[in-house]
Amino acid sequence: MRGSAHRWFSLLLLAAGAASACNDAPIPAPGTLLAVVESPNGEEGAAVLSFPSAGVGAITAVSGEVFSRVDGDSVTVVIVHEPGGELSFSVALADTTQRPVGVIKQVAAPNDRLRTTLAGYELVFRR
Questions:
Q1: How many Å apart are CA 7 and CA 125, to the nearest integer?
Q2: H/E element holding 71?
């Protein structure tokens, strides 16, 4: 009887350990993420976007040119990629588990014509 209780206790500990291993949440830490403008049209020439500036550090070009400006509690970013391509940049964050939510304000095609709709566009932050 005593051995049976010991076995049950061991199984319970094993199950609790397995459950806690499955719930491992990312640990808040500073780092750099890749920000990508996902386009329903493929390659793009330029974009203007903004997102909250809290916790945002350096913004650097991955491809093309990137210009940024902090204005109060938001940062505006302009990405230009001649003659066209993926619009992306890297952004240093104080906490990579708190990814910013961006707003795409305007997009230009590789021929420099403004897109008439922003439907289907999304700013995605990746590791």
A1: 47
A2: strand 65-71
Provide the pLDDT for residue 127.
87
| Cβ–Cβ < 8 Å for 110, 43 | yes
The Cα 124–Cα 104 span in angstroms is 11
DSSP reduced 3-state for 98: coil
Task: With a cut of 70, list the residues of the chain below it in pLDDT.
Answer: 1-24
Residue type, 113: R
* CA-atom Rg of the chain in angstroms: 22
Q: Which of 56, 52, 81 is nearest to 66 (CA)?
A: 81
Predicted TM-score of the model (pTM): 0.78
